[in-house]
Amino acid sequence: MAMVLRPTSWLMRPWKIATLWREMRLGTRLLREPAVPLWAKATLPFALLYLVSPVDILPDVIPGLGEMDDLVILYAALQLFLRVSPSIAVRFHQSAIERRQKFSAMPPSDVVIDADFTREG
Question: pTM for the whole thing?
Fold first, then answer.
């Protein structure tokens, strides 16, 4: 018995669109987060450079397929960015998105208050 693969639209799977939307929101928050290293943030601008570059894996003159490689590169760059971002920052901003909070940077976790307490008298 042969298995038939049928192309399906993302519109038939709305949870995938919602997941992509959450990942894009998370990505924009992490781009603004100071705790995410610059080298990690560079993945998305490099993907955007690929979009405007005249060099393509599939030429844009092929209707539909030419644009698909651009979308695949953007999606792969987003996934890579989310994976190389510090997990503590990802969790912080995921929970902030779930609580519908506006953007704010993570509080520094390595703050040490050093003081001397002396008793006079």
Answer: 0.71
